[in-house]
């Protein structure tokens, strides 16, 4: 399998059990080795008392993109922590896109940056996630594990 095929198999396996992302109406629109792009439309039940999207839900979107990116190597990987900066308000009807990219992966640790933007390309949030890999624990049995040779 190519690294792209491994990433897609991992996305498919994770998506089946990711009821939270499904319930929030997210869609994984792209995935690759160490990357993922996830979208979500801000619905009425996502808006807080100030009339803007709840910051926790914006962070949840970024966290989902982070999860798909760091699990793309077929080794079960979990969040060790994250920081999020809310840069602008997201509003009812906005289509938010979270694009996650791997900054570093070494040993069992990884760092990923996620940019969240609205449909106008305006940045809504900046998220940095730290991951921890359960070495030797495949997400999808029978699929190759680990980054391709020579990868970071």
Strand order of the largest sheet: 1-2-4-5-6-3
Proportion of β residues?
35-45%
Q: Please, what is the oligomeric state?
A: single chain
Sheet bearing the most strands, described? 6 strands, antiparallel
CATH topology: Thiol Ester Dehydrase, Chain A
Structural class label: alpha+beta
| Count of the separate structural domains | 1
State the helix count.
3
CATH architecture: Roll
What is the fourth-level CATH superfamily? Hotdog Thioesterase
Low-confidence stretches: none
The rough form would be described as elongated
Order of helices and strands: HHEEHEEEE
Q: Give the strand tally.
A: 6
User: How many angstroms does the end-to-end distance come to?
Assistant: 19 Å
In angstroms, what is the radius of gyration?
15 Å
CATH class wording: Alpha Beta
